[in-house]
Design brief:
Length: 327
């Protein structure tokens, strides 16, 4: 049986280097060589390298088509680094050793950018059971209630392809695919909890940090230039009404439709998975192949709406968005 393969993009470990701190000038290295508090940056000239890998249990290997290595070369997960940006977001960076060459590569589990400071919070030589082939754009957690075509609600883990879900713009639409991934609930993978009632949601809405909630405000209540805005869950965090839930493992589920849709979770509008070349490259091969066959254009048009930044929410105040929590 062929192992599922996964395409990711990695950097030379030396391209993420200490600009200020005890190890100034050094590139990202094993946990024992790193010093919490050091500030790292991604080199401006850094170029990502395509790595196609297959993983079975804790073992990973290079697959033909990668920009380095040869088919079957072993890959060793050496360390996991937890870093924080100036605005408080956290990023996990995995350190991978390509055994035949003895070279180290850095795999960020969230996007990173040059000219931005990343402060090292923790470096661990026990990264845990990271399933690299499950780096998939996912959204909801187990138990999230999704509104069906007839108005009834169903836990997301019970949904299957063909079930008809109510969408805001296109009425009832059949689910094309339900994708699932189990992740460690740490750093950028720790889910965000939106307490019941805060946005009008009937129960706690627990989603991945980058998942976007749809808000509609008009007239004097309008929050931006348009009446419709999309807000990433992580930008809503105030540690009272909305917070990160870290620790253990979390099952994430994504719903794929023929279009990028606004659906209803816990009674409020949120986005479905937007399929594009970028998201397809993060899916295990079998899922990517299935989506490509069902959605041959490979690209959804994103739902129209202004993307609300953390700065916008800081300026207008989250209290302008939040409602009174349910007791």
């Amino acid at each position: 049986m062929t192992k599922p393969s996964q395409t990711v993009h990695v950097f030379d470990a030396e391209d993420i280097w200490v600009t200020s701190g005890a190890n100034q000038g050094d590139g990202l290295g094993p946990a024992e060589t790193c010093e919490p508090g050091d500030i790292y940056q991604l080199d401006r000239q850094a170029m990502p390298r395509k790595l196609i890998l297959a993983q079975s249990g804790a073992q990973a290997e290079v697959v033909e088509g990668s920009e380095f290595g040869a088919q079957g070369d072993p890959l060793i997960l050496v360390a996991r680094h937890l870093m924080m940006t100036p605005d408080g977001d956290t990023v996990d960076v995995l350190l991978i050793r390509h055994d035949p060459q003895g070279r180290h590569f850095a795999l960020p589990l969230s996007p990173i950018a040059p000219r931005l400071d990343y402060t090292l919070l923790e470096a661990s030589d026990d990264p845990g059971e990271v399933q690299l082939v499950d780096l998939v754009c996912v959204a909801f957690t187990t138990g999230t209630m999704i509104t069906l075509a007839g108005g009834a609600q169903m836990p997301i883990e019970q949904l299957k392809a063909g079930d008809r879900v109510l969408t805001r713009d296109n009425g009832p639409q059949p689910v094309q695919l339900v994708a699932k991934a189990t992740m460690r609930a740490l750093g950028s993978f720790a889910p965000v909890v939106i307490s019941a009632g805060v946005l009008g949601n009937e129960g706690d809405l627990v989603v991945s940090p980058h998942h976007r909630v749809f808000l509609y405000r008009r007239g004097k209540q309008k929050l931006a230039d348009t009446s419709e805005i999309l807000v990433q869950a992580k930008h809503l965090v105030d540690d009272e009404n909305v917070w990160r839930r870290e620790g253990g493992f979390v099952d994430y589920y994504a719903l794929v439709f023929e279009r990028h849709e606004i659906i209803y979770a816990e009674g409020i509008p949120v986005e479905s998975l937007m399929v594009s070349e970028a998201t397809l490259s993060l899916l295990p091969e079998e899922l990517g192949t299935e989506i490509s066959a069902r959605l041959p254009d490979l690209a959804h048009r994103p739902h129209f709406g202004t993307e609300a930044t953390r700065e916008l929410l800081d300026r207008i105040g989250r209290e302008q968005i939040f409602r009174k929590r349910k007791p």
